[in-house]
């Protein structure tokens, strides 16, 4: 099982390949805001662990194992963004919140969050009811006198 740091690299490599058709060390370094030398070390480790095939100066490709995990990591990220949006987290906080929690949840928890997202997406009235609950709780807080 990859470490959280490895997951970040695999996810980013997967996204770059999906969007650009390739992933270069410089692209990965820029996307993750790290030095190219750090990327090279991690890419070599991911190669040793069979997540990708890396040839110096020629680039890299994800193995089937790397693609499978990369796809799952992107799906996890997207699911958590959806979930936070549904429960009313402010848009400007969602990305950072997902980055902060995605490595700390078990796959079982992710699957249950997926069930909850499906529940809300199955009937738009459910989302509206949740939004009303959120608005009512905000009003209650603002109606209370300061301590």
UniProtKB/TrEMBL annotation:
Family of the protein in this entry: Belongs to the DtxR/MntR family.
Annotated Gene3D superfamilies: Iron dependent repressor, metal binding and dimerisation domain, Winged helix-like DNA-binding domain superfamily/Winged helix DNA-binding domain
Binding locations of Mn(2+) 2: 11, 77, 99, 102
Activity regulation, free text: DNA binding is strongly activated by Mn(2+).
InterPro entries (alphabetical): DtxR_MntR_Metal-Reg (IPR050536), Fe_dep_repressor (IPR001367), Fe_dep_repressor_sf (IPR036421), HTH_DTXR (IPR022687), HTH_tscrpt_reg_MntR (IPR022897), Iron_dep_repressor (IPR022689), WH-like_DNA-bd_sf (IPR036388), WH_DNA-bd_sf (IPR036390)
UniProt keyword Ubl conjugation, yes or no: no
Main location group: cytoplasm
Domain of life, source organism: Bacteria
Keywords: Activator, Cytoplasm, DNA-binding, Manganese, Metal-binding, Repressor, Transcription, Transcription regulation
Signal peptide (residue range): none
Role of this protein: Central regulator of manganese homeostasis.
One Pfam family per UniProt: Fe_dep_repress
Compartment list: Cytoplasm
GO terms under biological process: intracellular manganese ion homeostasis
Keyword Transcription regulation recorded: yes
Domain HTH dtxR-type: 1-63
Subunit structure as annotated in this protein's UniProt entry: Homodimer.
GO molecular function, one term: manganese ion binding
One annotated Gene Ontology cellular component of this protein: cytoplasm
SUPFAM superfamilies in the record: Iron-dependent repressor protein, dimerization domain, Winged helix' DNA-binding domain
Lineage: Bacteria, Bacillati, Bacillota, Bacilli, Bacillales
Positions contributing to Mn(2+) 1 binding: 8, 99, 102-103
Protein name, per record: HTH-type transcriptional regulator MntR
């Amino acid at each position: 099982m990859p470490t959280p740091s490895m997951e970040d690299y695999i996810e980013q490599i997967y996204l770059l390949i999906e969007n650009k058709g390739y992933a270069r060390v410089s692209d990965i370094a820029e996307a993750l805001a790290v030095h190219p030398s750090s990327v090279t070390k991690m890419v070599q480790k991911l190669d040793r662990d069979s997540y990708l095939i890396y040839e110096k100066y020629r680039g890299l490709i994800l193995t089937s194992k790397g693609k499978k995990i990369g796809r799952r990591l992107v799906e996890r990220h997207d699911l958590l963004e959806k979930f936070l949006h549904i429960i009313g987290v402010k848009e400007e906080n969602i990305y950072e919140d997902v980055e902060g929690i995605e490595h700390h949840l078990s796959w079982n928890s992710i699957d249950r969050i997926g069930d909850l997202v499906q529940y809300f997406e199955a009937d738009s009235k459910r989302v509206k009811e949740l939004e009303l609950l959120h608005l009512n709780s905000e009003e209650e807080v603002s109606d209370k006198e300061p301590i």
